[in-house]
Amino acid sequence: MISIEDALRAVIAKSKEVSKEVILPIEKVYNSILYRDIYAPINMPPFRQSAMDGYALNLHNDFSYELIDEVKAGDSHQPILKPGEAIRIFTGAAVPDSANAVIMQEKVIINNNKLAVNSQLSFEYNIRTVGEQVKKGELALKKGTKLTPAAIGYLSSLGITKVSVYKKPTIALITTGNELVEPGEDLDYGKIYESNSKMLHSALWNLGFEDISIHKIKDNYEETYSKLKNAITEHDLVIISGGISVGDYDFVGKALTELKVEEVFYKVDQKPGKPLFFGKSDSTLLFALPGNPAAALTCFYVYIYLALHRLTGLKNHGLPTIKAKSLSNFVKNGDRPQFLKAIYRNGEVTILEGQSSAMLQTFAISNALVLMKGNMEQIQVNDLVEVILLPF
């Protein structure tokens, strides 16, 4: 059995990016990672730009200006201002070369075509200079940057329509078990509704992964072997839910052995999620998760989240971890480290009831996990605890 720390190090060591470049339209790169540096094809802004609605002035030594024209955002004409002249201008509009300051409209008095200001302005006041954000030829975004909505907006503002990114991994989700029934079907005695595939699919989708296939396997060795073999051949990442324990009808481990999957580790010293398997077959990564839903989701966020980031070119080490003040008391049973479902707000964390590995009710309202290490017997109110922030 491996420690949490060693398991995380093993995931990092074995998870290499799917080093394939793909060029995609800017509309389809959300949450992708840049494969190459991007250099600005234009200055941004490409012209001297007004930072607000107001008046562009050719400064002189008086506080009075003659209003001679108007420039709206998108106008291309350039009025020529003499000293002491002004034009009406709007946010984002091009500032004429002959203007050297912009004053906001609330700070002037207009009488006929005369404009009175109440103070002297400095040169370039309220004017966005050419290339203020980035100059043509400069590095706009470097390789390895995650493409957030702001990054996509920034690149679009530079006129970029296609981006080179790391290809996202193809993912197979496999659930096992005779007891599983699809929601909407009749629930016979001894059966349960299958939830892990939908839970894990939504977690992957939330992180921006869309190339996901879902497979359901009964507790049958031949079917398990065949489906796993195909999944390993066709995907970069295989996530298996259930069937990894040592029961008479748990066939996943046997099939992985026969398929000659490298076992990186099996069983982690933690609760929930002890029977976690991580392996590799050529370039395909495999995680076999416990079947209990809360255990499966915990393992997803602690380990698979990290592997996904590594596969897509990110070099960070998983979800952010912070210290927070506990608002709860909690006594741990046993000496295994434990991930506790919790709610984090404003530097404080509440540990929830219902910590069973089979229970999703409390996970459904959690936004964090508290890591209670093996040498900790209890948490008391006001203790500082380690909190893993979940990505939603």
UniProtKB/TrEMBL annotation:
UniProt key word Isomerase: no
Entry cofactors: Mg(2+)
Transmembrane segments: 285-308
Keywords: Magnesium, Membrane, Metal-binding, Molybdenum, Molybdenum cofactor biosynthesis, Transferase, Transmembrane, Transmembrane helix
Catalysed reaction equations from the record: adenylyl-molybdopterin + molybdate = Mo-molybdopterin + AMP + H(+)
The UniProt record lists the keyword ATP-binding: no
EC number: 2.10.1.1
Pathway assignment: Cofactor biosynthesis; molybdopterin biosynthesis
InterPro entries membership: MoaB/Mog-like_dom_sf, MoaB/Mog_dom, MoCF_biosynth_CS, MoeA-like, MoeA_C_domain_IV, MoeA_C_domain_IV_sf, MoeA_linker/N, MoeA_linker/N_sf
Span of domain MoaB/Mog: 172-310
Reported function: Catalyzes the insertion of molybdate into adenylated molybdopterin with the concomitant release of AMP.
PANTHER family, per the entry: GEPHYRIN, MOLYBDOPTERIN BIOSYNTHESIS PROTEIN
Family as reported in the entry's similarity comment: Belongs to the MoeA family.
Protein's UniProt name: Molybdopterin molybdenumtransferase
Lineage: Bacteria, Pseudomonadati, Bacteroidota, Flavobacteriia, Flavobacteriales
